[in-house]
Amino acid sequence: MKEISLGDKVEIFLNEKFGEHSGWHAAQVFAIEPYSQHRSFYWVRFNAETQARVGIKEISVFNPKHIRKIA
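User: That's the sequence. What structure does it adopt?
Assistant: Structure tokens below.
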């Protein structure tokens, strides 16, 4: 996984508990909370369009398989 920093544009994966909204969604990292030497909680904020579609503004991502940095 590429190193993720504050302000980075990322895609996060919402699993099946989000129903029809499961899949990858663009967001931006606004906070990082270290959990251990190798893992952190990444707090991300969705853009207005994604917020309206998914129904949430912000979410934390812990599983590194569920977040990826985009250009």
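Strands lie at 9-14, 23-34, 40-46, 58-61, 67-69.
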